[in-house]
Specification:
5-stranded mixed beta sheet; alpha/beta; 6 helices; Purple Acid Phosphatase, chain A, domain 2; globular; 6-stranded mixed beta sheet; 23% helix
């Protein structure tokens, strides 16, 4: 698990956080229009003075190999090498807004077969923080702090309940304000309250925690979901608004 502090250091009243992953660049069902539109919006809002930050959730490329499970190697539109070149070109103009990336199980295929970590190379090319398997990213400004734990995820997510169960398990290993997981190609969120022990002031405080599934850019037809007869997912990626107003309670608002 790797800790990283965002480079954002402004004094804005709010900050927007985008989770982007499970693109599967190179798969024939990959929908590039969705990610290009989101990146365009991120740049436009930053240019207008509204801070928008990005966390990359893994499975940016399909990365099918001859040893991959299933017939993925025959369902791609470009080689893994070209996939990585293309995805690096896609994100390079937005690198200043990216606060970190993690590896997904599809990039892990290349590492397993060759020992080459293509996400590490991607992060090095863009000059962004590589958080490997699990990252905790801190956003601190206006005398407040939000912590975000990101993990690509694993296991089945055929139902929303099973996906949420895996997501909630993230809280077993580290205490943060927000937990985000990809892998299951679903959009969704839930929240809970835990008791936080404030030993400095001798109090038990209510600590809200938000759990987020981070979506995908893989169309249903001719995809994994189609093959397994799963419910067609809503494409896209979630946005969180982090409240940075001084003297106001911390607050996180979820958008799709």
């Amino acid at each position: 698990m790797i800790y990283h502090k965002s480079s954002y250091n402004g004094n804005d009243d709010k900050l927007y956080l985008h989770f982007i992953g499970d693109l599967h660049k190179g798969h024939r069902a990959y929908d590039e229009r969705i990610i290009k539109q989101r990146l365009k919006e991120v740049k436009e809002y930053n240019d207008a003075g509204y801070p928008n930050r990005i966390l990359l959730m893994g499975d940016l490329v399909e990365a099918a190999t001859k040893t991959s499970v299933g017939a993925g190697v025959y369902e791609t539109t470009m080689s893994p090498s070209d996939q990585m070149d293309s995805i690096a070109d896609l994100f390079y103009p937005y690198k200043e807004y990216i606060d970190g990336c993690i590896i997904g199980n599809h990039e892990q295929r290349i590492y397993k077969d060759t020992s080459i970590d293509i996400m590490k190379l991607f992060a090095r090319d863009l000059g962004i923080k590589y958080l490997r398997y699990t990252g905790v990213v801190n956003y601190s400004w206006n005398k407040r702090s939000y912590t975000v734990c990101i993990w690509h995820g694993k296991g089945g997510g055929a139902t929303t309940g099973s996906a949420f169960n895996n997501l909630e398990k993230m809280a077993r290993t580290v205490e943060t304000d927000i937990y985000a997981m990809g892998h299951v190609h679903k959009l969704g969120h839930f929240s809970r309250i835990i008791k936080h022990v404030d030993t400095r002031n001798g109090k038990l405080l209510n600590k809200p925690q938000l759990f987020v599934l981070t979506g995908s850019a893989l169309r249903y037809d001719e995809s994994y979901a189609d093959m397994k007869n799963l419910v067609p997912p809503k494409l896209g990626f979630p946005i969180l608004k982090l409240d940075g107003r001084p003297k106001h309670p911390k607050k996180v608002t979820y958008y799709e």
